[in-house]
Write a structure and sequence with these properties.
Helix content of chain A: over 70%
CATH topology of the largest domain in chain B: MetI-like fold
CATH architecture of the largest domain in chain A: Orthogonal Bundle
Number of domains of chain A: 2
Number of helices of chain B: 14
Number of helices of chain A: 14
CATH topology of the largest domain in chain A: MetI-like fold
Radius of gyration of chain A: 25 Å
Order of helices and strands of chain B: HHHHHHHHHHHHHH
Oligomer: heterodimer
Distance between the termini of chain B: 22 Å
Number of strands of chain A: 0
Largest sheet of chain A: none
Structural class of chain A: mainly alpha
CATH class of the largest domain in chain B: Mainly Alpha
CATH superfamily of the largest domain in chain B: MetI-like
Mean pLDDT of chain A: 86
Number of domains of chain B: 2
CATH class of the largest domain in chain A: Mainly Alpha
Low-confidence stretches of chain B: 1-6
Order of helices and strands of chain A: HHHHHHHHHHHHHH
CATH architecture of the largest domain in chain B: Orthogonal Bundle
Structural class of chain B: mainly alpha
Strand content of chain A: under 5%
Radius of gyration of chain B: 24 Å
Low-confidence stretches of chain A: 1-17
Shape of chain A: flat
Mean pLDDT of chain B: 87
Shape of chain B: flat
Chain lengths: ~325, ~290
């Protein structure tokens, strides 16, 4: 992407066009800056008005009482922390995000390797087939999963029975439901990991493997000493990004279990929706959402560290 | 795949084995991954009577029928959901692309004070999930009088689409050689001319990728329409289908799955033709280094 020759445009332009008058140069630069900011103004308005401002406003909201008439400071937070159902939310959100991302990454890694063995037009077709789960709107595919898990007429249970196995209440018990929502998330997200890892695999120079083969390195050694180090960056970025998105997931749990059974599958997002929008306790709902903030901020920090490097190269 | 040192014959044989092994494993994964879409399609072809009979193999329709699709296409409320999704998505895609192309051009080529901060800020907003902000936004769209109006989506979806679209476009724009626009600038072209006549045509693959991204976000979004829209004439497809189901006493699964097929078709069709652009846009930037 960012090629080697990304030196700041402004500077080079000024230096390489020989012009005698300094004053007009400066005026040109200032006019250009103004124009650039004008071009960016819709973006700035969007980001500040509909992202940063609401984020700040969330902190203010979370410190109000239910009727939003007075300050209660951190009462909403302390109340939530003392509540059993909220502790479950924290536990389930972490369990959901971490296990789903681990499985997505592993599965994506395996799929990418398999895909990498196939070349040319065939690879396009197989990749396309595996991408389908990721292309269907999540809300709609989750509905299908619900129908697959349906207790009365579950196609999955019918198949288990056909093989002579006992049927499973997929969404009936807390742990079954927890595993089910993770399965759906892995199903949806693994193709994304596959694409990213496949692109990373393609960027590893073939000569490295050839050299390793000549030196007598086995498959395991090639994996640990060439593939993984070369893919390190993309693995990190993808995992961090996916942790953020998975942690804040809403659609799957909302549709599949709506937090049940016994509030065992609520995530921060679905719990915030229930408290804030459905029960109308806006400040407490905002507080639930904000519990995500420190974790998301920490993850974002690590992603951004990498990204800032790239920005320096481009905009310098 | 590379192979270990050996005589030429065994090398070839080993490659052959790797290939067939990969095909076998991939076939297994494809079958597993395609179970839900397959079941979605199969159920949509069953009549309500067949589904409620709960008899026989559920994996295929015993007497396939298009009745569910016919009912949906004749249903005012479903067509309303679909139409809402279409116009919202169309507006959001156009608005998002205009915003991101203009700002990506300025950010990648017009080096001004704060450009770095701004591009980092743009990426930061890409990392803010909608579930973090939907409650304060509920208040804000309330002040704007947009609760239960489809326009709220036109206002909010760009916040999800623009950051990443801008990000993709910055990447594509900065891969265009500087000499190209330097030369144009010396010849007296204005920045807008450079953008329209050089950058947009050259970065077309990136524009396609960003457009598909904006489309996907807008078409499939669930949280915002669920939180801010409640009457049937305002909601979009995803929420319309899910709500109808949750509210209805009878679980008309055949109909619901047919609705899901109709909702899933546009993205699948688009990705069938333009997948390569999208994959390139998605993986660009992150693969280097």
């Amino acid at each position: 992407m960012a090629d080697g020759n990304s030196i700041g445009y402004g500077e080079t332009a000024l230096v390489s066009t020989p012009r005698p008058r300094v004053g007009s140069m400066r005026r040109f630069a200032r006019r250009r800056s103004l124009f650039a900011i004008l071009l960016c103004s819709p973006l700035i308005a969007l980001v500040v008005g509909l992202q940063f401002y609401p984020a700040g406003y969330a902190f203010y909201l979370s410190m109000l009482n239910r009727k939003m008439t007075g300050f209660v400071l951190f009462d909403n937070f302390t109340f939530l922390m003392g509540q059993d159902s909220f502790q479950l939310v924290v536990f389930q959100s972490c369990l959901f995000a971490v296990s789903a991302v681990v499985f997505k990454a592993l599965l994506g890694f395996i799929l990418a390797h398999l895909m990498h063995n196939i070349r040319g037009q065939n690879q396009r077709i197989w990749r396309g087939l595996l991408l389908i789960p990721w292309v269907i709107p999540l809300a709609l595919s989750t509905l299908t999963w619900w129908w697959l898990f349906d207790p009365a007429y579950s196609a999955l249970n019918w198949t288990l029975k056909w093989f002579g196995l006992p049927s499973i209440p997929f969404l009936g018990t807390v742990w079954n439901a927890r595993i089910s929502v993770i399965v759906v998330n892995v199903w949806f997200g693994a193709p994304f990991f596959m694409i990213m890892y496949l692109a990373a695999l393609k960027s590893v120079p073939e000569q490295l493997y050839e050299a390793a083969a000549i030196d007598g390195a086995g498959a395991v050694q090639r994996l640990f000493f060439i593939t993984l180090p070369m893919m390190r960056n993309i693995i990190l970025i993808t995992v961090l990004y996916s942790l953020i998105v998975t942690f804040a997931d809403f659609d799957i749990v909302r549709i599949l279990t709506n937090g049940g059974p016994q509030d065992g599958t609520h995530l921060f997002a679905t719990y915030a929706f229930q408290v804030g929008i459905q029960s109308g306790n806006i400040p407490r709902g905002a507080a639930v959402s904000l519990f995500m903030f420190p974790i998301l901020a920490a993850l974002a920090f690590f992603v951004l560290r990498d990204v800032i490097k790239r920005n320096k190269e481009i905009t310098a | 795949m590379s192979a270990t040192i050996a005589r030429p014959g065994s090398l070839h044989r080993q490659r052959q084995w790797t290939l067939w092994g990969s095909y076998t494993a991939l076939s297994f994964f494809v079958v597993v991954f395609l179970v839900p879409p397959f079941y979605m399609l199969m159920t949509s072809l069953k009549s309500s009577a067949e589904i409620s009979a709960e008899a026989g193999n559920p994996w295929y329709p015993h007497s396939p029928t298009l009745a569910n699709y016919m009912t949906l296409l004749g249903s005012d409320s479903f067509m309303r959901y679909f139409f809402n999704s279409v116009w919202v998505t169309a507006v959001v895609v156009v608005v998002s692309m205009v915003i991101s192309i203009l700002s990506a051009f300025a950010l990648s080529r017009m080096g001004f004070k704060g450009a770095q901060v701004l591009s980092t800020g743009v990426f930061l907003t890409y990392l803010i999930p909608p579930s973090l902000l939907f409650i304060p936004l509920f208040q804000i769209v309330g002040w704007l009088g947009l609760i239960n109006s489809t326009w709220v989506l036109v206002l909010l979806f760009p916040t999800l689409a623009v950051p990443f679209a801008t990000w993709i476009m910055i990447g594509y724009f900065s891969s265009i050689p500087k000499e190209l626009d330097e030369a144009a600038l010396i010849d007296g072209a204005s920045y807008m001319q450079i953008l329209v006549q050089i950058f947009i045509p050259v970065a077309l693959p990136g524009i396609i990728a960003a457009t598909i991204f904006a489309f996907t976000i807008s078409w499939g979004a669930f949280l915002y329409p669920l939180a801010y829209l409640y009457s049937a004439d305002q909601v979009t497809l995803t929420v319309g289908i899910v709500r109808d189901l949750i509210r209805g006493d009878v679980f008309a699964w055949g109909m619901i799955m047919a609705a899901c097929v109709i909702g899933a078709a546009p993205p699948i069709i688009i990705y069938t033709f333009l997948m390569d652009y999208y994959v390139a846009g998605l993986t660009a930037g992150s693969t280097k280094g």
